[in-house]
Amino acid sequence: MAGVIRTPLDKWVEEGLKVLAVGGPDAVRVEVLAKRLGVTKGGFYGYFANREALLEAMLDTWERESVDEVIDRVEHEGGDPKDKIQLAGMLTFSGDRLLPLDLAVRDWARRDEAVAERLRRVDNRRMALLREMIGSFCSDPDEVEARSLIAFCTAIAHQTLAVDHEGRTRADVLDRAGDLILDRTRAE
After folding, report:
1. Per-residue confidence (pLDDT) for residue 95, from 0 to 100
2. What is the pLDDT of residue 181?
3. Packing angle between helix 113-135 and helix 98-109, nearest 10 degrees?
4. What is the C-alpha to C-alpha distance for residues 62 and 160, in angstroms, rounded to an integer?
5. Closest by alpha carbon to 180, among 156, 141, 142, 154?
6. Which residues are within 8 A (CB) of 109 and not within 5 positions of it... i.e. 6 or more apart?
7. pTM higher than 0.70, yes or no?
8. Using CA atoms, how far apart are residues 39 and 9, in angstroms rounded to an integer?
């Protein structure tokens, strides 16, 4: 079949990630992805043995993008540890790409132990980065652990909170939380 153009593997994975972010893992169906890509589902089986293989490839991509690529960029761009923490948080937990995926994977992990184990690995790597960076300006190991946990929880949980801040914007409150976590003095 010379001249037949196959839909690249990364297109299947990318479309699967888009569907996952909006509808969760149950919405990721070969037929749905093929329709969204404007192709037949036959090309899918040239890359994946089954749907589970696609889901695994999607998790591999999510993990690479949300940890490996974030850490590489943070190290490449340099800066002091406080700047690195902010950059890592911004890259991971803001925007239209990684944040919705992260929240979808977290929800999925509540029902799938294999996904929960992968999420645990990702979160442990993220916490290790926080510990390293916070440990560069804070010497108390208990305080390093507490600040790391507070930073991580704040980055994730504020996305799901529906709360007012009594005359303050969410951005103002998050900035102040960052000042406290990163031990920054405020310019008065």
Report:
1. 77
2. 92
3. 130
4. 20
5. 154
6. 115, 116, 118, 119
7. yes
8. 13
pLDDT of residue 188 exceeding 50: no
Instruction: Name the token pair of 87.
Output: 């950059």
| Any domain includes 84 | yes
What CATH number corresponds to the domain at position 93? 1.10.357
Q: Which of the 8 DSSP states describes residue 165?
A: B
Count the residues in the chain. Answer: 188
**Which whole-number Å values give the CA distances from 95 to 23, 80, 122, 160, 171, in the listed order?**
18, 23, 19, 15, 14
Running DSSP on this structure, what letter comes out for residue 5? P
Give residue 70's domain range. 56-181
In contact, 52 and 97? CB cutoff 8 Å: no
For the segment 42-79, what is each residue's pLDDT rounded down to a tens digit?
A: 889 989 999 999 999 999 999 999 999 999 999 999 88
